[in-house]
Amino acid sequence: MPSLGNIRRSFAPWEDPAAKPYISFQNVTKRFGTFTAVENLSLNVYEREFFSLLGPSGCGKTTLLRMLAGFEEPTEGELYLDGQPLKGVPPHKRPVNMMFQSYALFPHMTVADNIAFGLKQDGMAKPERDERVAQMLKLVKLEQFAGRKPHQLSGGQRQRVALARSVAKRPKLLILDEPLGALDKKLREETQFELMDLQQELGLTFMIVTHDQEEAMTMSDRIAVMDKGVIVQTGTPAEIYEAPNSRYVADFIGSVNILEGKVTPAGEGRIVLDGPDGRITGAVRDGAPATGETAWFAIRPEKIEIGRTPPEGAVNRLEGEVWDIAYLGDMTIINVKLASGTVVQAATLNRFRLVEDPIGYEERVWLSFNPDSGVVLRS
Amino acid sequence: MNARWSWFNITSVVFGFAFLYLPIVLLVIYSFNESRLVTVWAGFSTKWYGELFRNQGLLDAAWVTVRVAFISATVATVLGTLAAVSLVRFTRFNGRTLFTGMVYAPLVMPEVITGLSLLLLFVSINFARGFWTVTLAHITFSLCFVAVVVQSRLVTFDRSLEEAAQDLGCPPFQAFMKVTLPVILPAVISGWMLAFTLSLDDLVIASFTSGPGATTLPMKIYSQVRLGVTPEINAVCTILIGVVSVGVIIASILTKTREVQRQRDEQAAFAQ
Ligand SMILES: Nc1ncnc2c1ncn2[C@@H]1O[C@H](COP(=O)(O)OP(=O)(O)OP(=O)(O)O)[C@@H](O)[C@H]1O
Ligand SMILES: [Mg+2]
C-alpha cells in the first residue's frame, strides 16, 4: 500500500504499542467555573518527539500547556510525565520549562540576566553559565542586545529572549506557546530550523502551540488539531494533510475543496457521491459510509488537473469557467466556477518561466482528479 | 488644557496658592529672624537653628519621632505589602470584601477615634504607654496607606512573571522576592515614604497613645507653642517641612518614573 506523503519515518514511537509515553493526558478535563476549557482529553506524547498543538483562538491550547507546566490543576483526569503522576507537583519541581505566550520577561533584568535566571536558580557555576547564555544569545541572534532591558526591545526581540530563556536550562520537556508568532518570515524559518537542530542535538521533547500551520508542518513529528477543548485529530503532518478525518481538520490545514453528495457504493473500495456539482468517485480508506448517507469529498487544489479539453479517461471531471486567477510566483491558483455555482480551486506549479497561451479569465476549462487524490469524509 | 491664561485664571491660582502656602512661607522666613519676637523682623540670622541644637528637650523629641517613624514605617510597609498581595491575589476567599473594607477603614476614620480606641486597648491590656505604644499605633494607621499604594501597583502586575520564575525553578516565596518585589519596589518605597511622613507629623494619635519619656516632636512643639511661639519652634518646623517635602517629592518621583516606564513599555508593546 502506498504511504501518505513522501517521508518514510524512522522515528515513530506512537506506532509502537510497547513504547512508553513521556507525557500522558488521561481523560483530562479542565473547567473554569462552568466553562469547560478542555474536555475529556487523552493524549500521549513520546520522548524526543516534536509535538504541535494547532487550533483556533480560545480552543484550550494554552490551558493544556499550563496544566503540564503546573499552573493549572486538571479538574478531572490524570496527567503523567515519564510515568510519574504530576498531581500536586508544584511548577518549580517539574522538569519542564515553558515559554509564555505573553513572554513574561523580567522587566528589571537585562536580557542576559533573564536568560541566566533559571541557570542561576540551578546553581550553575558562573563560567559555564556565561557560556550557556552566550550560546543562547547566539541561537536567537541577540548577541548585541545582552545588556538591554526588555522594554528597550522590539516585540520580536522580546519573543526571542523569552525563547532563549526557556531553552537555556535544556529541560527534558520544553513547552512553547506560540514561540515565533512575532517574527518576520525569514527569521521565523531560520529559528524553526535552529529549534529543530537543537531538539535533535539535545534529545529534548518539544510541545509547541502555533497558529501557523506551515510552521507546524515544518517542525513537527506529529500534530494535534484542537477545537473547543477537544482534540479532533492527531497525526503526522502528512496524515493530517492527506487524510484529515473531518471537514474541520481538512479546512483548518491548508486549502481544500469540499464537494458534497449522496453515497452509492461502487465496489473496490470506492464510492460514488451524487451531488449538485455532479458525480464524483472517491476512494474510501476505512469505514465506508452507508448508501444514501451524505458525505463529502475533500481534495487539495494541487491535486486537481486543469485543461482546456475534456480529459481522456479521467474518472472524475468537472466543467466550469475560470473565475479568478492568483499568481503566487511559485504557483498559480485558479478558481473555477462550476455550473452549480460551487467554486473549485486548482493550483498549478509554475515550472516554466515562459508559458505559451496560459489559461485566462472566463475561459471554459475542465478539472480532473483521481479518486485516490482526495478523501471521503463523513463529518 | 489649551485654555488661555486669562486674568481670572491667574488671580485664582495666585490666591489659591497664597492661601495654601503663605503661612508656611511666613513660618520659614521668620525662622531666620534675628529678633526674639516672632512677629517683628529684625534682620537675617541662623542663630535659632544653633539655639535649636542646644535645646535638649527638642532634640530628644526629634530623636523619638525619627525612631518611631522609622520603625513604624518599616513594619507598616511589610505588613501593608503582605495585605495588598493577599487582597490582589486571593480574589475568592471568604470574607474578602469585609477584609478589604477593614483594611481601608482607617483611611477615613477620624484620628481622634483611632487614637482613643488604641488608648483604650493599651489600657485594657495593661500595656505601659511609651515609645512602643506610639510605634504600634502608627503602624496600625499607616499600614492601610501602604496597602492602598502597593495594591494599586499590583493590579497591573503581570502574574505570569511570577509563574515564569517558578517555571525556571523558584519556589513561590523566592519567586516573589526575586521577581515580584523588585518590580513593585518603587510602589513599596513610596508606601514607606508615605508611612514615614505620616508618622513624623502625627499629633493626635501620638498624644493619645504616648506616655512619659516618649514625647514626639509634634507633641513637644504643640506644648511649647501653648507657652508662646519662639523662633526656635519656627526653625524646627522649617526643618520638619524640609524633611516631609523631600519625602513626598521622592515618593512622587518614584511613582512618576514608574508611570512613565509603564507607558513606555506599553508603547513599545503596541509598536510591535
Ligand atoms: N483563568 C481562566 N479563567 C476563566 N477562563 C479561562 C481562564 N483561562 C482560560 N480560560 C478560557 O479557556 C478557554 C481556552 O483558553 P486558552 O488560553 O487555553 O486558549 P488558547 O487556545 O491558548 O487561545 P489562543 O490561541 O488565543 O492563545 C478560553 O475561552 C478562555 O477564555
Ligand atoms: Mg494561548
| CATH domain topology of the largest domain in chain A | Rossmann fold
Straight-line N-to-C gap of chain A: 25 Å
What count of helical segments of chain B does DSSP give? 11
* Poorly predicted tracts of residues of chain B: none
**CATH class identity of the largest domain in chain A:** Alpha Beta
Question: Proportion of β residues of chain A?
Answer: 25-35%
Rg estimate of chain B, integer Å: 23 Å
Basic shape of chain A: globular
Could you give me the name of the CATH homologous superfamily of the largest domain in chain B? MetI-like
- Termini Cα gap of chain B: 31 Å
Number of domains of chain B: 2
Total strands of chain B: the figure is 0
Keywords:
heterodimer; A: 379 residues; alpha+beta; Rossmann fold; OB fold (Dihydrolipoamide Acetyltransferase, E2P); 2 domains; 6-stranded mixed β-sheet; 5-stranded antiparallel β-sheet; 8 helices; 34% strand; B: 272 residues; mainly alpha; MetI-like fold; 76% helix; 0% strand; globular; binds adenosine-5'-triphosphate; binds magnesium ion; membrane (chain A); ATP-binding (chain A); ABC-type putrescine transporter activity (chain A)
If you had to describe this structure to a student in words, what would you say it looks like?
- Chain A: It is an enzyme of class 7 (translocase).
- Chain A: This is Spermidine/putrescine import ATP-binding protein PotA.
- Chain A: Pfam families: ABC_tran (PF00005), TOBE_2 (PF08402).
- Chain A: Part of the ABC transporter complex PotABCD involved in spermidine/putrescine import. Responsible for energy coupling to the transport system.
- Chain A: The complex is composed of two ATP-binding proteins (PotA), two transmembrane proteins (PotB and PotC) and a solute-binding protein (PotD).
- The complex is a heterodimer of chains A (379) and B (272).
- Chain A is an alpha+beta fold.
- Chain A folds into 2 domains: 13-247, Rossmann fold (3-Layer(aba) Sandwich); 255-377, OB fold (Dihydrolipoamide Acetyltransferase, E2P), CATH 2.40.50.140.
- Helices cover 22% and strands 34% of the residues of chain A.
- Chain A contains 8 helices and 20 strands.
- In chain A, strands 6-7-8-3-9-10 form a 6-stranded mixed sheet, with helices on both faces. In chain A, strands 13-12-11-14-20 form a 5-stranded antiparallel sheet. In chain A, strands 15-19-16-17-18 form a 5-stranded antiparallel sheet, with no helix packed on it.
- The two termini of chain A are 25 Å apart.
- The mean pLDDT of chain A is 86.
- Chain B is globular, with a radius of gyration of 23 Å.
- Chain B has helices spanning 7-30, 47-52, 56-89, 96-108, 111-124, 131-154, 159-167, 172-200, 204-209, 217-225, 231-270.
- The model of chain B has no long low-confidence stretch (mean pLDDT 84).
- Chain B has 2 domains: 1-25; 56-271, MetI-like (MetI-like fold).
- By secondary structure, chain B is an all-alpha fold.
- The chains are: A alpha+beta (379), B mainly alpha (272).
- Chain A binds chain B through residues 69-71, 90-92, 96-98, 100, 102, 104-108, 117-118, 121-122, 150-156, 165-166, 169, 182, and chain B through 158, 160-161, 163-172, 175, 179, 182-183, 261, 264-265, 268-269, 271-272.
